Amino acid sequence: CLGAMGCCDCALADAGRKAFGNVRDKLLDMYRRRPYTTVAGVVWVTLVVIDGILTAVVLIFVVRSWCIKKEVDGPILELDEIASQVMCALFMVQALVVQPSRLISLWQWLSDFPSLLRRRGPPSLERWKLGVTLLLLNLNCWFRFVNVYFMWWFIQNPSLRPLEWELATLITSVLCGAIGIGLEKYFVRLAQRSAEIARVAVDESQDDRLGSGMRSVGDSRTPLTNGGDKLEMGGVSQTGSEVKAAEENGVVEHA
Questions:
Q1: Number of H helices, E strands in the chain
Q2: Are 233 and 254 in contact (CB under 8 A)?
Q3: DSSP readout, 52-65?
Q4: What is the pLDDT of residues 56-80, one digit of tens each?
Q5: Would you call the peptide bond into 75 cis, given omega within 30 degrees of 0 as the criterion?
Q6: Which value, in Å, is the radius of gyration of the alpha carbons in the chain?
Q7: Where are the beta strands (DSSP E) in the chain?
Q8: What share of residues in the chain are helix, strand, coil (percent, to 5)?
Q9: Whole-number mean pLDDT of the chain?
Q10: Confidence of residue 144 (pLDDT cuts 50, 70, 90)
């Protein structure tokens, strides 16, 4: 058992090191291509993680108070509101950053689809697939804006905020973003796979044509035949039987 646990620990450690190495390599590659965007993204993710931990701790205290049927303390509610507002602001910034490009892509999908394909680059997606993903990604931003409205309009009186609208817009925004990004990656993988299959098929057909051409060249050479078939040798026409008799007598003639 100890040996098995040691092997599991080693496997987990190796997987962790590989995952960390992959993330590090991707970050370094992104930093070389877009340094400022990469730094801003790392800072944004760090703030989201810190605020998420703080929100989780506050929720633990809130749930604990509900379980023991005790009124939640005012400072805890204030801390929960602050953490929620900070998280809302962070995702508002993310929505404002990505919304222009998503809106432009949706407009090009409606008005100039070939231009959108050129701007995106390979692999090309079918129009309906790209339209579904763009609609979902834009809905992610639009529902986020509505959620921000409910969060900030009632910032002075959180108790008056309609909880059902706040949660509905938040959950819908998250689902639209997650499904849109997932579908886009899935469609891109399918397109890449189809392009690879087509490339392999073209290579195989070229190899088959090349092989058939070589066989045709080899078959065009006139073989030495038996019986009454003739063999052309240096302009002298001889039958197979004559050549055989000449070979036996040692007097094969060459022109």
A1: 7, 2
A2: yes
A3: HHHHHHHHHHHHHH
A4: 888 888 787 777 777 766 787 788 8
A5: no
A6: 37
A7: 230-233, 236-239
A8: 80, 5, 15
A9: 78
A10: very high
